[in-house]
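Reviewer 2 asked us to include a model.

Predict the structure of this chain.
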Amino acid sequence: MNHTNSVNADPAELAKFSELAHRWWDKESEFRPLHQINPLRLEWINSICPVAGLAALDVGCGGGILADSMARRGAQVLGIDLSTKALRVAQLHAMEAETNGVSYREISAEALAAEASGSFDVVTCMEMLEHVPDPASVVQACASLVKPGGWVFFSTLNRSPWSFVAAIVGAEYLLNLLPRGTHEYAKMIRPSELAAYCRQAGLDVHHTRGMDYNPITRRYAMVQSTAVNYLFATQKAA
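Predicted model (structure tokens):
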């Protein structure tokens, strides 16, 4: 890593999400979009790699929306994040919802990779890469953490003119779907860049999908276009 901070995290980003942590499970809050897209993401992941009975890791789990839903599909899930407040919310929700098979740790992907290489059948890293100083380092850590033949799923935002219009101007300023300042255009990642990170880490990109929002119906849908939000399904060689 080229930055001086030994942990691959932006303190301002952590502070931003920690401030909102208590609202993670309020489906009408700033996290409403995550609640709306979570079933779509989960079904896509499960269609490629059925998670029941698998050891799953959710990197940058936040309040646990995806981790909790994978556990409810029968996976043994570990969610990791560097936001203490978000993890407390995730743990509290798991207790209140009586979700079995999910646990949480405050640790970076890189640190966990150093102690638990090749421990997981499936790794997810959703809406997180665009918030860290060194996304390639996270991709490498995810590749280290997954078993040979295992799957790693990423989702992030494309650095494109349309993404700027839709994800920043539209979502943050016009439609108020997200808090202003949630995303920085310069930190967004083109699919070609993420594909290069994956190749360097020994991950083969098998499937790509996009996510689209219809402001009229107020619904999200999985689409072929990767112009704004997009997802990668990658596999480590067996």
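Confidence is low (pLDDT under 50) at residues 1-5. The first strand starts at residue 55 and ends at 59. We have added this to the supplementary material.
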